[in-house]
Amino acid sequence: MSPVFPMLTVLTMFYYMCLRRRARTATRGDMMNSHRTIVSSSRTSPLNAEVVQYAKEVVDFSSHYGSENSMSYTMWNLAGVPNVFPSSGDFTQTAVFRTYGTWWDQCPSASLPFRRTPSSFQSQDYVELTFEQQVYPTAVHVLETYHPGAVIRILACSANPYSPNPPAEVRWEILWSERPTKVNASQARQFKPCIKQINFPTNLIRLEVNSSLLDYYTELDAVVLHGTKDKPLLSLKTALVDMNDLEDDDYEEKDGCGMDALNKKFSSAALGDGPNNGYFDKLPYECMPKNRSSFIWKRSENRTKPRPKQKIQLLILLISGVCGLPYFPSFSCTKLIQLILNHLSLPDLCRLAQTCRLLHQHCCDPLQYIHLNLQPYWAKLDDTSLELLQARCVLVQWLNLSWTGNRGFISVSGFSSFLKVCGSELVRLELSCSHFLNDTCLEVISEMCPNLQDLNLSSCDKLPPQAFGHIAKLCNLKRLVLYRTKVEQTALLSILNFCAELQHLSLGSCVMIEDYDVIASMIGAKCKNLRTLDLWRCKNITENGIAELASGCVLLEELDLGWCPTLQSSTGCFARLARQLPNLQKLFLTANRSVCDTDIEELASNCVRLQQLDILGTRMVSPASLRKLLESCKDLTLLDVSFCSQIDNRAVLELNASFPKVFIKKSFTQ
Question: How far apart are CA 418 and CA 587, in angstroms?
Answer without folding.
Answer: 40
